[in-house]
Recover the amino acids of this structure.
């Protein structure tokens, strides 16, 4: 059953993909992916960068979203951000599942199954 769900998710695009993300992971995760232009599971799974790394930059347009994503920790003059654990766990788990599914599909194609 899980594979059927994963196969269906891999086919989602655009608004259907974002609606799924919002329902399964939450509105903040949806907005993080949407603002970066990830509109399919495939484009997201092929990404090797941390989707949260965009918050390492001081981008004014993301200031409100950043407040929902992280905690700013001040150490003297330095400010470091820490992604909220629950959000990171949900996004990382979703990415892990999709990347595993893509790898397994590729292996099956190579083996001719």
């Amino acid at each position: 059953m899980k594979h059927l769900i994963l196969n269906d998710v891999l086919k989602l695009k655009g608004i259907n993909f974002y609606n799924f993300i919002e329902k399964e992971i939450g509105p903040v995760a949806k907005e993080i992916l949407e603002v970066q232009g990830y509109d399919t599971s495939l484009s997201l799974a092929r990404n090797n960068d941390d989707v949260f790394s965009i918050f390492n930059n001081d981008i004014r347009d993301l200031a409100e979203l950043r407040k929902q994503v992280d905690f700013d920790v001040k150490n003297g003059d330095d400010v470091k951000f820490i992604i909220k654990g629950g959000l990171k766990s949900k996004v990382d788990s979703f990415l892990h599942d999709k990347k595993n599914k893509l790898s397994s599909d590729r292996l099956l194609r190579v083996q001719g199954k």
Q: What stands out?
A: Helices lie at 2-11, 14-24, 27-35, 41-45, 63-69, 85-111. The chain is about 60% helix and 10% strand. The chain has a mean pLDDT of 83.
